[in-house]
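Action item from last meeting closed. Structure (320 res):
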């Protein structure tokens, strides 16, 4: 194989970037989720090193009034201030001049392709940390875990977005089943906004680790209820049109759980990816090194946070 690089002994950033971008921007395989999945991570662009936000209460139910009664006034209220600190991420790869000059088996192109893949996977690994730690250290601005039985509402009272065995009639665990997802849909449907009125959430994304993805598809796509033989209509597929998605970064092998699962309303949830700077690249020519190597660097700046409990129900998939 003859390329411009192998003929003239130089490597340009343009040709490196072309390979890098092709692999970085490749579409996710069917059924797979990543940091680039808009249904799961809502992107907020920022021009600062930190993002400051607040959660608003919102108005309650309208009041019935008389013909000439003074109209009640809602006082706009915010609480639960939060700060998201944007983090820098970077990596580089050394490519020897001889490897480029000889161009053996397009090896340097393969190295850059793997480099781009690592960049994309790094983003996904960090983004899905929100879900790996959803029951413990991922916190919402009210100070509770992302998935909790006791989110304090600004307007008073509490709201649960965690499926527990007590929610499911006769269940010994919250393992992923049709019955469990139906109850999770009920929790979403009855979920209250910060003011206490109905948020009217509808789950359309069923997010799991790969170990649960087969079961998720049976539950979400079967015309009939998957776990029994009574030929009952599966309302989850007929009415809700659930879309199962999986991420390997939810799995136990990456510090998550093979049994945990999440039902999400892709329109209303508040799982966010804050982007200060998209991926940028830079090339140092071999002539500026002391060992005849090119250095190709990539870096980006972003952070991930859950800014409200709304629109998500989670279950550990075990007896909790």
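Sequence:
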């Amino acid at each position: 194989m003859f390329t411009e690089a192998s003929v003239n002994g130089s490597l340009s950033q343009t040709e490196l970037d072309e390979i890098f971008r092709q692999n970085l921007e490749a579409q996710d395989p069917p059924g797979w989720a990543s940091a680039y999945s808009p249904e799961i991570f809502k992107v907020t662009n920022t021009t600062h090193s930190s993002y400051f936000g607040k959660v608003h209460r919102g108005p309650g139910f309208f009041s019935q009034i008389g013909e000439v009664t003074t109209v009640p006034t809602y006082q706009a209220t915010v609480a639960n201030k939060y700060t998201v600190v944007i983090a820098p991420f970077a990596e580089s790869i050394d490519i020897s001049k001889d490897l480029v000059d000889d161009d053996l088996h397009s090896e340097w192109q393969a190295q850059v392709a793997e480099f781009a893949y690592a960049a994309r996977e790094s983003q996904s690994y960090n983004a899905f940390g929100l879900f790996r730690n959803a029951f413990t250290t991922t916190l919402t601005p009210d100070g509770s875990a992302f998935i909790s039985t006791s989110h304090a509402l600004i307007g008073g009272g509490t709201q649960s977005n965690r499926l527990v065995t007590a929610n499911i009639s006769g269940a010994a665990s919250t393992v992923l089943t049709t019955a469990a997802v139906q109850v999770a849909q009920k929790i979403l449907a009855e979920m209250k906004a910060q003011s206490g009125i109905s948020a009217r959430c509808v789950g359309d994304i069923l997010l799991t680790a790969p170990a649960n993805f087969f079961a998720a598809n049976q539950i979400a796509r079967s015309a009939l209820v998957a776990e029994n033989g009574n030929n009952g209509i599966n309302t989850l597929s007929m009415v809700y049109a659930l879309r199962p998605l999986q991420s390997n970064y939810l799995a136990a092998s990456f510090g998550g759980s093979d049994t945990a699962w999440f039902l999400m309303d892709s329109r209303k949830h508040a799982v966010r990816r804050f982007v200060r700077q998209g991926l940028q690249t830079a090339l140092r020519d071999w002539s500026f090194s002391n060992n005849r190597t090119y250095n190709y660097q990539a870096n980006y700046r972003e952070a991930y946070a859950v800014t409200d409990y709304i629109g998500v129900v989670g279950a550990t998939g075990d007896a909790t």
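Note appended to the action item: Residues 124 and 201 are 26 Å apart (CA to CA).
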